[in-house]
Amino acid sequence: MGQPEQQAEGAGPFVTRLTSHPPGGGTVVWESRDARRRGTVVVHPPGAAHSRHARADAVSVGRLRRLNVIAASAFVIGGALFSVGAGIAQFGSGDALRCAAVYFAGGLFFNTGGYVSLLQVINAPLHAGGRLITRRWRWWSYEPMRLDWLSAFVLLAGTLVFAVNLIDSFLRGLSVQQTNRLIWVPDVIGCVLFLISGHLGFAEICHGGRPCARPRSPGWWIVAVNQLGSALFMVSAVAAFDRPATGDLVSTGIANWGTLTGALCFSVAGVLQLCEHP
Predict the structure, then answer these.
(1) 80: burial class by Cβ within 10 Å (0-12, 13-18, 19+)?
(2) Which of 27, 46, 71, 129 places its Cα 20 to 30 Å from the Cα of 189?
(3) Nearest to 54 by CA among 22, 23, 14, 7
(4) 267 in Cβ contact with 226 (< 8 Å)
(5) Which DSSP category does 4 fall into?
(6) Do the beta carbons of residue 165 and residue 110 sit within 8 Å?
(7) pTM for the full model?
(8) What contacts 207, CB < 8 A, 6 or more positions away?
(9) Among residues 244, 251, 259, 265, which one has the least CA distance to residue 85?
(10) Helix axes 252-275, 58-91, angle to 10 degrees
(11) What's residue 1's pLDDT?
(12) Please, where are the H alpha helices in 57-146?
């Protein structure tokens, strides 16, 4: 038997969609996000009027479903806690220690969601011959030539940088320069990493560097809402810069509202993610 003809699509060297034409006829379409999140490839048998989904086995499906629930729930709870923290800062007592504690709790859930998102990538079933094969379980892998791995890894790195920002926010008696260096700089870096992760997520869904709109795709909506949240976090971070001359924030209101609305976006995206399962 000959080898199937294949057509690869993606951004740069990254393959995110692979269309195969087996020697016996028909078409098999593998997409990285569908394989990772839904555990499926699309198969169009020769002579058939409609395509069907070839699914991974029960082990992979159960694994992917559990990981998806954990990651989505972590982002829902983490986003909700961040919103509460911003609400306390804007409408409540404004107690810095209380806000820091709520933010820190939310950050732990973001860390969990980031790591489990990476686990979804490295334990996604392998594509071979028009079907999905279950991998052995792994807690870590280094696969920088996979666009989905890069997106998840950058997201996890962003949550860890945010953790530095949240831990440093418990420090007291800092000068303006120390506050900007220890709290503001990690905040901005974390926002940049979130935005990069979202850009890579769009590249995976759009199978290239050009932006696209796919309103019928749950995955596109998840990435879009998360990217909006990341942009609002960045607005909040810029507004939270301490002016060296006065020690005041650029805009306390914008900083709080940016965090609150951005965090709600992550919670909404987490709810949407619960629907994108095998």
Answers:
(1) middle
(2) 71
(3) 22
(4) no
(5) P
(6) no
(7) 0.91
(8) 9, 10, 11, 16, 17, 31
(9) 259
(10) 160
(11) 46
(12) 58-91, 96-122
Structure tokens at 102: 């709520």
Query: Across residues 209-228, what is the average pLDDT?
Result: 90
Instruction: Tell me how far CA of residue 119 lies from CA of 36, 81, 112, 122, in angstroms.
Output: 10, 23, 11, 5
| Helix or strand run (H / E) with residue 1 | none
Q: What is the pLDDT of residues 135-186, one digit of tens each?
A: 899 999 999 999 999 999 999 999 999 999 999 989 888 889 998 999 999 9
The whole-number pLDDT of residue 4 equals 59
Cα-Cα-Cα-Cα torsion 263, 90, 177, 105, nearest 10 degrees, comes to: -50
Instruction: Convert the pLDDT of each residue in 59-93 to its tens digit.
Output: 888 999 999 999 999 999 999 999 999 999 888 77
Mutual angle of helices 218-239 and 252-275, in 10-degree steps = 160
Question: Residue 162: enclosing H or E segment and its boundaries?
Answer: helix 147-168
Q: Find the Cα–Cα–Cα–Cα dihedral 222, 204, 148, 238, rounded to 10°.
A: -60
Residue type, 125: P
Lowest mean pLDDT among 102-111, 169-178, 218-227, 249-258: 169-178
Starting at the edge strand found earlier in the chain, the sheet holding 5-9 runs 5-9, 17-21, 27-31, 40-44, 52-55
Q: How far apart are CA 179 and CA 173, in angstroms?
A: 9
Contact between residue 125 and residue 135 where contact means Cβ atoms under 8 Å apart: yes
Residue 6 β-bridge partners = 20
**Tens of pLDDT along 96-115?**
888 899 999 999 999 999 99
Q: DSSP class of residue 244? A: T
Nearest of 119, 110, 147 to residue 230 by alpha carbon: 110
